[in-house]
Amino acid sequence: MTTGYSPRRWLYTLVVLAALRLVVAAVLPLSPDEAYYRVWALAPAAGYLDHPPMVAAWIRLGMLAGGDNAFGVRLIGVLAGAGSSFFIWRAVRDLLPDVTQSGAWRACIALQATLAMAIQSVVITPDGPLVFFMSVLLWAMGRVVAGSAQRWWLVAGVAAGLACDSKYTAILPLAGIIVWLVVRLARQPEWARRQGMGLAGGIALAALCVLPVVWWNAAHGWASFVRQGGRTVDWHPGRAVQFVSELLLGQVGLMTPGIAAFFIWGQVGLVRRARQMPGAALLACMALLPACVFMQHALGDRVQANWPVVIYPVLAVGSAVVAWRWWRWAAGGGLLMGALVYIQALFAPLPLSPHTDVALRQMAGWRELASRIAAQVPAGEFIAACDYGTAAELAAVMPGRIVVGMEPRWTLFNLSHDISGSGVMVCNPRRSFSRDDFIEVEPMTRLARERRGHVAEMVDLYRVRLRDDLSATERQTIARLPTPAG
């Protein structure tokens, strides 16, 4: 056991961290993806092209409490990120009963100290609800393993279903649970008989939670399933070394090096305990099966750095078995890295290029750019953008204006498509847009989106006029995006 253990001190650390993240979330401008998810929240549906709908539900709930602004959009994500610590702590106590209470608190701090959590706690993406519901699932499965009443299978089923409603990668640790169940049922048939009704109920509830997403996909040509499944089509085994290196180095960065060492050594400890301890076997299955899938995928295609975040709660619980004395340095280093990211995003003390400064590239200068665009567009005319991120960002910061998205993806949204007349098209010079929808396209000017003299990107403005004879199908690709109240 580490010396100087104080539950109250670590609880205070988590509370202060949550308060800091609330402040950062309120001040930091929205990224294009967040602005896009804001549109989801204001156009409720059981599914969307890119992901299931949970992130939209969280944003809508936060906006009801905090307003149509960065704070409201991110509010539930910040609170849930902090709340996941409780479920991690309880999961350690049930799944790893030989671990001390100090180990349970180490697991909570380890998860919060990852760079991934530092980012996901202040920038709302589908990974936020995914991590939260995976933490709840671990808690419920811990109760099952500890021998509590069968109703905990029902809690586990709801958590599993809501995790799938957050992001499709949730299926991977769930597959790990299935592997664990099959092995345990084969070895302990009497345990299987005792769990039958509760397990069946949990499966039924999980299916019920996922049913709306399946229904939406069925009604929209399986659009979301096809989009995500299509990632396996591009296969380049000749670049396997590059993809695997990117995966491994990216995870060391998102975990932070010290926390990564704890996570890896924790898995070694779980494998050693797996035969004697059902909870350790469960955690090993939930982490190692997804890890193998990601490694296999990296042999021919790029694994996005945030995909493995789905198993971070599992890795955090497993790290509780590691009691190295220098764990404070690992956690402190992770928290420091997160703080430095916040400082750079908010104050930009380092003059980094847009390539290395993600906050500059994605978040900086949108309000100023919107003001300069609005000055050149008469009231009542529309402002369109050639990509969904720019359109969503302009909609978030241009109250009272008509902001339009023009892409096939907008046909899947329950938004107004009754757009006509003249307006301005905003487009990055590296992108292009179809001119078939217009009878007039005239270049106007080029503007810079910047922060304190550092240019994030250039955008071109075009004076455009929509064709009067657009077909109903063509009009469905042109959608008016919701803007804040003027």
UniProtKB/TrEMBL annotation:
One of its GO terms (biological process) is lipopolysaccharide biosynthetic process. The chain crosses the membrane at residues 71-92, 104-123, 130-148, 168-186, 198-218, 247-268, 280-299, 305-327, 334-352. Its main location: membrane. GO terms for molecular function: pentosyltransferase activity. Pfam families: PMT_2. This is Dolichyl-phosphate-mannose-protein mannosyltransferase. Residues 50-216 form the Glycosyltransferase RgtA/B/C/D-like domain. It comes from the Bacteria. Keywords: Cell membrane, Glycosyltransferase, Membrane, Transferase, Transmembrane, Transmembrane helix.
